[in-house]
Every structure is written in C-alpha cells, then in structure tokens.
C-alpha cells in the first residue's frame, strides 16, 4: 500500500461542510486533504431544498440558529452572488369558512404577523425585504392558482442556491489554494500512531482500485449521515438522529412564488419555483436504515402532494419528474418530534474516547455552512498553531468575482440568451471562458441538455475544470439530465462527449452511460405513473431497444 | 363487403389494415397522432435468441422466446408462429422501396452509442451497413456540427464487435465540414436530413467525401439522416461515391422512424385505405370516428400502442381507455396498486411494468378481467398487447407486424364469415 506525505488536516466527507472546511483550511495555508467516497454533494447537501434561508421555522426554539444563518446568508451572497436566486414566499392564512374565520384562525393570523415581524429583524443581514400582511384579494392577485379558502397571507423573502455547485466551487477553491481533493475515495480505516492517537487514514480509490495510506496530524469526520460509520472505524460512537427529507420536482412552474402549506399532520411544507419546474419539500421522518439504502416511498410522495393540494388544488395535474431523499444529521435527542429537533451543530473531540486527533462535526444547516466551517477550522488552526485568519467570507468563490452581462455575451458569442443566462447563473464570471470555448469550437455551441439549457461547451468546461470523474457528476456541475426528460435526450450524446474528452473505450463509455441512466431511474422509480410511463418507455426504446446497451458486453 | 375498423396507424395498425384489405374487407383506419413507430429506430426487431446464439434463424429465435417467456405474444400465438416469416414478407412486399425482405438470420447494425445491434429487418439504407458481412475497410462520416453522432465512438464500437469475431477491419474517420453554416450547430437530425434534400446538397457532400475517401474503403457509414421520406439520398450517395453507402441505426429523434411511418402511410394510400385523423369513441354498438361520422364495423382491430401512443393509460389505475379493458402484467391484473411495485433494481434490469398491456387469447381477442373475450368483434395488435417488453426482448416492431398481420386477417374473415 502506498503512503502519502504528511498532511496537516484530513477532511472526511465532501458535502457542504467538508468542502467548506477544506477551502477555509487551505486558504489559511493548512496542508489539507479532502476525501469523499462518491462525488461532492452526494448526501444531504445535494438532496437539500437548496435554500439559504434564515430558518424562520427554527425561530421558535433556536433564535441563535436563525441569526447565525441570516448573517451567514449575507456572506454567502457576497462570495457567490451568481449562484443565488431570490424566492418571494406567500404564506397563506386559511379559514374553514372564509366569511367567518374562527377566533382561533384569527388568533393564528395575528400570531403569524407577530412572528414574521420578529423574523424581519434578521432580514437586513441577508438582503431580504420585510414581511407584508396581505389581504385575500392581494394574495389572489399575486397568485390566482391558490385555493379559495384564504383570509389573507404573509410575504417573506428567502434565497435559493444550487447546493451541488456550492460544494463544487468550495472544493475547486480549496484545490486552487493547494488542497488535495479526492472524490470516489473511501476511507476504510484509521492509522494509529505510537500512542494510539489517530495519525491518518487508509482509503480506497474506486477508479484506480488502489488503497493508499494518508498520514495526517488531524482528521475531521464530516461525513454527515455516514459520520457514525466513519467514527465506528476508530471505535468511537457518534450518535445522530437521522431524519429523512423527501423532495419532488414537478414538470411546471406553478407559481413565481414559494407557497407554504400545512401537511395533513400540521407540519409546514412548501412548493418553490425553480427555473421551469417546481420543487415540493419536504418530509421529516426518523430513519434507522443504512444511509446507502435510503429510498422514497409512496407514502412520502402522497404526503407531499396531499399537503400542497390543500393550497394549490391543481397540483396533481403536473407530472412528477423525480423524487429524491436525503438524511438530515440532526443531533441526537430523545422525546422530540423530528421537526422540533435543533438544527444547531456540534463539534466532538474524540480524545476522551481514545481517538486523539479525531474530531466530528454533526448537524448544522446549509445556510450556515460557512460559519460552521470557520468555527471548526478556527479550532483546527489553534491545534496546529496556525495563526492565519479566516477569509472565506471575504474572498469570492470561483466565478463569484463579478456577474457578466448575459445579453452582451449572447450577442458577442452568437449563443442563445437563455443558454448564456443559465450558464452565467451556474458559472458567474467564468461563463466568459465557456463562451470563448464555444467560439473556438463552433460545434460546441450545440445544445447538449435542452431541458436545462446546457450547451456542449459548458459540459466540456466542467469536464476539464471541475473535477468530474463520472458522467453522473455532470448532473451536479451543469444539471445534465435534471429536467423534464431526465436524461432521455442528453445521456447518449453526453456519454459520447465524455468518451471523446477522456479517450474512453466503448465499453467504458457504456458503463458510464448505464450508470447515468440508472441514477435517473432511481429517482423516477418512486413516482413512475401517468405521463412518466410514456417518457420511460421512450427512454428504454432508445437505450435498450435501439441502443442495445443491455445486449453488448461491457468489458474493456 | 365486410367492414373493418382499425384504431391506430403505426406498424401494427397499418399492417392490420393492409392485411384486412388483402382479405377482402373494406377498411377504415383512425389515428389520433403519430406514435411509437414514428419514434422508433426504423428497423424491425423480430427475435434475438435469448441465449445469445447469433447464427440461429429468426424463426427459431422466436420459438425459443415462446418457450422461455410464457406470456410473450409469441407464446400465446404459438400455433400461428409458423406464419411469422410470411407476415414479415407481407410487410416487405407492401413497402418494396423501403424495406429489404427478411433474411434467414439477423443483421448486425452499428448504433450512434458505439454498440452493435442485431435486428431482423431494416430499411435498404440501414441494411447496407450490415456488419455480419464485415468489409475490410469502413469509412465513418460524422458532421462536425452534429455532435450527437460521434463517428469515433461508432468506429470504436464496430472495432470492438469485430474483435469478438476475430476480425480487424480498418476504420477511416471522416469529419465532414458539411453543412458549412454555423447555425446548423443548433439543428436536430431531421433538420440535417432536410438540409441534405436541398438541391445540390448531396453532390456537395459527396465531393467533400470523395476528396478524402481512402480508395480501398468498401462501406461508407453516415449518420442516420439520409432522407425524410425515402432512402433515395443513400442510394444517390452510393452512385456519386461509387461505393456502398449506409446509415447507422438511430435512437432518439430518429429520421428513419419518421421515414418508416411515411412509407406505411403511403402503403395505405396506395391500396386505397381510408385514413381518418381523429379519436374513436364507442357509441352504442358502433363507433364515432369523426364529429359527424359513425361506423358499425363487422370487425375491429385495436392497435393503439402502449404508453407512448396512449393505448394504455394511467387513470388512477392502468386502463385501456377506449374499451376500458383491464391491464395485466404477466398473468396478474394491475389494478389500483402502486406502480412502483412493478419496478425493481436497476434501469437495465427487467421491469415488469414495461410488460404491461392487454391479455389476449390465441385468436388475438383481448380478455376481460374474467379471462373471457371482451367482444367477439374485437382483436388487438401491437404493443397494446402486454407480456413483452420491446426494449428488452428485442421483439418490438416484429410483434407489431406479426400481430397486425394476423389480427387484420382475422377481423376481415370474421366479418365476411
């Protein structure tokens, strides 16, 4: 087994915490290695709602979580402005009998106004607008699709973000500052030093099928739902209370507003617009299984649809494009409902558990990833005697330096404006590099994924610059195959492109293609029905029927 | 004269109509829209041996499928399986300019994914690229502005499959600059096909290729965009280049699929079969086929396809929408159950849900939930019939042609008898 140089810090996990810490540490000059068993953002980060919100829900019991999240949301907007989009929300206030709301219903409406008033205190931190109490007429003028049982509503502003790209950019920035980032490299065990202290890890590279020993002064476990498994390899027990969260993506943009609804059990769920689609989220149920076996059930889907139907009666007319699940890694607490669990994070030092130099970070939320990373990296710096300050809230992430004028780019490079618009949203200032690539190679101007307006040039840029190991990774770089057809159109051409860029044999290209098609199948499976049946029949006709992918031997 | 109503005009419906007309019936075909045939690769899969024996005849491969898959239409129609080749020959005779008659065993065609695929019958332009009789030197043309067809991947796929036959053909890759218009970078395959039909376009392309073509090349393989309505651009290129030209098989946005559907429409027209565009509604004993027109046919062929074409729909439960017929997977009725229960494992695994369709008896009559023929006049053809998965079984348009041939004949004979 090969042995590496000595790293100052080894980070296990490539979610938003892992990539965030890797970036922070690398910027302070700490020699850092980040190991991820799959691709970045394959766990809770990628499966999240993708909202940089202040967590109004947490205001009831965790005011500091809301404040921290709101302040950090402001920082995130500063370092990666292109990746964020504003989501204006409507919170409908309902009554059984609209003409005569009950005392309780009137009380709840008043309560909502007060509650949002408190949240307004945090809005300046994150460039949000104060909430407004809307009359029923105003609500229906804004969104006529809402059920006719409202007495009014509240408005609120939150921010959406492309979470997989946030992880990608943090990892890329870490690399630019000297960190080593290895994806598809799974930790298999810990190295112990002379005093039984943790002195590194053994990790298996899925691509080279080689194990390597990486030596490190400090090891941080930020493996999210997998953190207990990682800790167990050092005979350390880490307890979390994993909550399964399911989202659905619908084929149409129901509203330009995010809408909050109460589910059958009274929990709050939402539907938000995302490009041409809508996203419904989310469930919160305890999950005791293996995090690798997490599946969406029919019950999850029905729960979400039923809840949204209570405010948008036509929601079932939409085709569900996909359903996905993630695991929140909330801190373990007994005797609480999943929703009431704190989104606070905690750092555990395992010295007392007989694993000196191993730390675990559990919990936290997407919106405050940067602050969490800073807190942990501060601790790491102290341990390593590094006195450099955190700069992750000051220096932009790659592409975040400026936002290009998309109309000018489209005109200057002869590309359709919607293509450049999405490109700039995903890549910020680096969209110019993609346009230049398309100018040098006119054939790369063609559309690779028409659903997500991804052109060949963008995919080529991601393949060359953004640490893509497998075709499925492109989904998290440029949303390949995420739209209404879920890869039917783009999968084959994208596999051919990958083969061309990487010099793959047909067998290797077919394996990549099948792996990609299977990743789409897994998210379609729980919601297969109605129009999706036609889409999937066509998909199978193209790849298994005409393409004969299942009939060709895939060796070599 | 007996009257037959055919619902659907894809492969199954068109062949049923032609077959019923040959049996002496007066036929009217109603179609709602283009369906799975127009979206197909344009080649006709009939049977591939489940055990992978390539030399086995198509007929024996179908028998083997009938033996191993008990709910497959070939198994249910086992008594009639000796007429399989007759059905295919009938189809070829109806589309003489487009289709090469079926040979004894499968052709082997290259696909844009870099795979090769056995298929029973193909269009003249596709069959010319048969890799069973592998030439020593093949040129593969790709258009620089059409990145969906990667000539190198296609070439590598042919090399890999030839290596399994211990052959090492020489492959010449030709990156064509035609059409030299930057806006074509945004074009779909059908737009390339249409650009090739402009006056002088084929000559222009041939001139460019001729200047680069190695003299010992015996086959030139093109992207599947040679002609929207006929294979003539392919034969014209062969004449211009003085070497056999062929098209690779196609997957998505298939131009040859559109061409196949156009040829089926043409065949119906040639025989004088009336084609009505619209929806069929049951109306007492008869059917409304247009706002002011009803028919009371003696025989009806239901050839409405499966999910793509809307022959089977999910309306809370899976149903055949015109007659409300129950839908089965294998022997099991799919009623109000979660459809995810019929899906498993991985994408390329067998998925029972995609074998869903009508259950039929040995005379192609759809069965109700009691297992009794729903209506003595009614026959089913094509993928509205369940028990097979066209994608996995590789029996797609072949089952459509076979069942269409039999159902059309049965409907006409029932009507006249």
Please describe what this structure looks like.
The complex is a heterodimer of chains A (556) and B (417). With 556 residues, chain A is α+β, with helices and mostly antiparallel strands. Helix content of chain A is 35%, strand content 24%. Chain A contains 16 helices and 20 strands. Chain A has helices spanning 16-27, 63-79, 103-120, 136-142, 163-176, 227-232, 298-309, 369-384, 406-413, 417-427, 431-440, 456-465, 473-478, 491-502, 506-524, 531-546; strands at residues 2-12, 32-35, 51-52, 84-94, 133-135, 150-161, 180-182, 185-192, 198-205, 210-221, 240-250, 258-262, 268-274, 277-281, 285-286, 320-331, 345-349, 358-363, 447-449, 454-455. The longest helix of chain A has 19 residues, at 506-524. Chain B has a 5-stranded parallel beta sheet, with helices on one face. Chain B has a 4-stranded parallel beta sheet with strand order 6-5-7-8, sandwiched between helices. In chain B, strand 1, helix 1 (11-22) and strand 2 form a beta-alpha-beta unit. Chain B starts with a strand and ends with a helix. In chain B, helix 8 (201-210) crosses helix 9 (232-241). The interface between A and B is large, with 57 and 59 residues.
């Amino acid at each position: 087994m090969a042995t590496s140089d000595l790293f100052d810090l080894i980070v296990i996990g490539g979610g938003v915490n892992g990539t965030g810490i890797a970036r922070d540490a690398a910027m302070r000059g700490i020699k850092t290695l980040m190991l991820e068993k799959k691709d970045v953002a394959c766990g809770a980060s990628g499966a999240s709602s993708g909202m940089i919100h202040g967590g109004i829900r947490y205001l009831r019991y965790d005011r500091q979580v809301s404040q921290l999240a709101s302040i950090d949301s402001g920082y995130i907007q500063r370092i990666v402005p292109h990746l964020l989009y504003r989501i204006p929300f409507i919170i409908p206030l309902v009554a059984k009998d609209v003409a005569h709301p009950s005392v309780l219903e009137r009380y709840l409406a008043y309560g909502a106004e007060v509650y949002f008033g408190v949240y307004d205190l945090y809005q300046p931190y994150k460039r949000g607008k104060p909430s407004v109490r809307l009359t029923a007429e105003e609500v229906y003028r804004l969104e006529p699709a809402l059920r006719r049982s409202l007495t009014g509503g509240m408005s609120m502003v939150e921010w959406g973000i492309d979470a997989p790209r946030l992880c990608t950019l943090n990892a890329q920035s870490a690399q630019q500052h000297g960190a080593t980032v290895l994806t598809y490299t799974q930790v298999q065990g810990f190295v112990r030093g002379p005093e039984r202290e943790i002195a590194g890890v053994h990790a298996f590279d899925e691509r080279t099928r080689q194990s390597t020993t990486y030596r490190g002064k400090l090891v941080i476990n930020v493996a999210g739902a997998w953190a207990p498994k990682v800790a167990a390899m050092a005979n350390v027990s880490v307890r979390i209370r994993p909550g399964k969260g399911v989202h659905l993506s619908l084929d149409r943009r129901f509203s330009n507003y995010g809408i909050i609804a109460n589910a059958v059990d009274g929990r709050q769920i939402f539907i938000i617009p995302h490009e041409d689609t809508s996203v419904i989220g989310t469930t919160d149920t305890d999950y005791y299984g293996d995090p690798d076996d997490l599946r969406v059930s029919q019950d999850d889907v029905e729960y979400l649809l039923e809840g949204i139907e209570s405010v948008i009666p036509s929601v079932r007319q939409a085709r569900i494009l996909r359903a996905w699940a993630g695991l929140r890694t909330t801190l373990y607490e007994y005797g609480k409902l999943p929703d009431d669990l704190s989104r606070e994070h905690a750092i555990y030092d395992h010295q007392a558990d007989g694993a000196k130099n191993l730390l675990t970070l559990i919990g936290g939320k997407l919106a405050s990833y940067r602050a969490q990373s800073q807190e942990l990296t501060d601790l790491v710096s102290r341990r390593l005697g590094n006195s450099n300050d955190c700069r992750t809230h000051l220096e932009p992430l790659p592409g975040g330096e400026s936002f290009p004028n998309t109309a000018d780019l489209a005109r200057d490079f002869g590309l359709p404006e919607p293509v450049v618009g999405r490109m700039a949203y995903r890549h910020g200032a680096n969209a110019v590099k993609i346009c230049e690539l398309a100018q040098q190679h006119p054939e790369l101007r063609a559309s690779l994924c028409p659903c997500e307006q991804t052109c060949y040039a963008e995919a080529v840029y991601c393949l060359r610059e953004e640490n893509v190991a497998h075709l499925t990774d492109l989904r998290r770089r440029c949303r390949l195959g995420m739209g209404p057809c879920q890869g039917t159109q783009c999968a084959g051409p994208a596999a051919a492109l990958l083969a061309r860029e990487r010099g793959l044999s047909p067998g290797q290209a077919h394996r990549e293609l099948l792996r990609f098609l299977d990743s789409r199948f897994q998210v379609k499976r729980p919601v297969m029905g109605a129009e999706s049946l036609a889409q999937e029949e066509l998909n199978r006709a193209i790849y298994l029927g005409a393409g004969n992918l299942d009939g060709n031997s895939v060796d070599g | 004269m007996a009257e037959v109503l055919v619902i659907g005009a894809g492969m199954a419906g068109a062949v049923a109509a032609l077959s019923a007309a040959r049996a002496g019936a007066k036929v009217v075909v109603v179609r709602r829209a283009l369906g799975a045939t127009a979206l197909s690769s344009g080649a006709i899969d009939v049977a591939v041996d489940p055990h992978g024996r390539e030399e086995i005849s198509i007929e024996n491969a179908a028998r083997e499928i009938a033996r191993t898959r008990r709910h497959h239409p070939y198994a249910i129609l086992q008594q009639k399986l000796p007429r399989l080749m007759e059905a295919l020959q009938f189809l070829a005779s109806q589309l003489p300019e487009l289709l090469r008659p079926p040979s004894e065993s499968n052709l082997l065609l290259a696909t844009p994914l870099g795979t090769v695929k056995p298929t029973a019958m193909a269009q003249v332009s596709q069959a010319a690229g048969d890799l069973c009789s592998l030439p020593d030197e093949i040129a593969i043309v790709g258009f620089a502005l059409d990145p969906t067809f990667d000539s190198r991947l296609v070439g590598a796929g042919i090399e890999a499959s030839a290596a399994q036959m211990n052959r090492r053909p020489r492959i010449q890759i030709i990156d064509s600059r035609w059409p030299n218009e930057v806006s074509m970078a945004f074009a779909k395959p059908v737009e390339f096909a249409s650009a090739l039909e402009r006056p002088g376009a084929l000559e222009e392309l041939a001139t460019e290729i001729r200047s680069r073509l190695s003299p010992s090349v015996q086959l030139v393989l093109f992207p599947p965009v040679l002609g929207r309505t006929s294979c003539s651009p392919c034969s014209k290129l062969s004449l211009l280049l003085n070497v056999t030209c062929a098209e690779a098989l196609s997957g998505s946005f298939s131009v040859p699929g559109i061409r196949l559907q156009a040829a089926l429409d043409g065949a119906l027209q040639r025989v004088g079969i009336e084609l009505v565009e619209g929806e069929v509604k049951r109306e007492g004993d008869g059917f409304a086929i247009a706002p002011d027109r009803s028919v009371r046919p003696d025989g009806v062929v239901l050839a409405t396809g499966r999910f793509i074409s809307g022959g089977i729909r999910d309306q809370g439960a899976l149903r055949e929408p015109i007659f409300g017929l129950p839908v089965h997977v294998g022997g099991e009725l799919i009623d109000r159950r979660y459809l995810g229960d019929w899906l498993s494992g991985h994408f390329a695994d067998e998925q029972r849900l995609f074998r869903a369709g009508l259950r039929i008896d040995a005379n192609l009559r759809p069965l109700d939930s009691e297992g009794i023929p729903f209506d003595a006049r009614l026959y089913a053809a094509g993928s509205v019939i369940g028990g097979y998965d066209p994608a996995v079984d590789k029996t797609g348009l072949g089952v459509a042609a076979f069942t269409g041939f039999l159902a059309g004949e049965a409907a006409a004979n029932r009507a006249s008898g």
